[in-house]
Amino acid sequence: MRIYISADMEGVTGLVEADDVQPGGRDYERGRLMMAEDVNAAVRGAVAAGATEITVNDAHGPMRNLLPGSLHPAVRLIRGKPKQMGMLEGLTPEHDAVICVGYHARAGALGVLSHSFMGHEIEDIWLDGRPVGEIGLAHATAAALGVPVAALTGDDRACSEMTEWDGSVTTVAVKYARDRFAADLRPAGEARTAIEEAVTARLAAPLTTPPTVPDPSTLTVRWQSASVVSTLLGIPGVTSTDSRTVRAQGALPSLYRLFGVWMRVAASLTNQPPYC
């Protein structure tokens, strides 16, 4: 059994604010170790369920958060950037399941460190008219590759978002949002045990067939800055619905890769920190 883990950071056990998850933050070094422990809990669960190959993609920010020496010896780590497929770099149809560790709710939701990919620069995203964030877009892209999302860990709002998108996915809430930068935390040991046991149970059971994804799909993104939109309109196939909203049609996962190009363009124009 080949398992793919996409590891974000905002939804990791114990982390609640930017200084926990941004390089240079006063608690970042502690945060990256907490991230590794959540990932290791998922890895132990996968190994117990019979996984023979486990790929972990460091999917947060600079994508150099996980220290190779801090990870379970069974892990093959994808680290650094740029990555053409970003948070899903290395995912292929040969994988049997995806596990999302440390995920967070989309922009506008009152979840811990909630946003969609780029802090406040991205205000809203829709996939085929449905509001979506990192959770839904990852799920849909994995489904287009024929790989089911088996489990997700994060705060309770991230878990609810995943359940609304696909109720068959097992979720583990490691903290409960009180506000965007405050949470009621589960004890770390309890949270990691819950992750490990949930992953083992889900992977030991028959995996569901991923839902059918429309082809083509339509991705619509509303940005904070009109300058981003005016620049993105230079990309063939990109159209605008107003001065701050662009859309494009295409097949996933190619559309996901195109969205990554949009974000790199936006980052070059705005240089805005997240969580403002």
TrEMBL record:
UniProt-listed InterPro entries: DppA_N, Peptidase_M55, Peptidase_M55_sf
One Pfam family here: Peptidase_M55
Name of the protein this chain belongs to: M55 family metallopeptidase
Species name: Streptomyces bluensis
Source organism phylogeny: Bacteria, Bacillati, Actinomycetota, Actinomycetes, Kitasatosporales
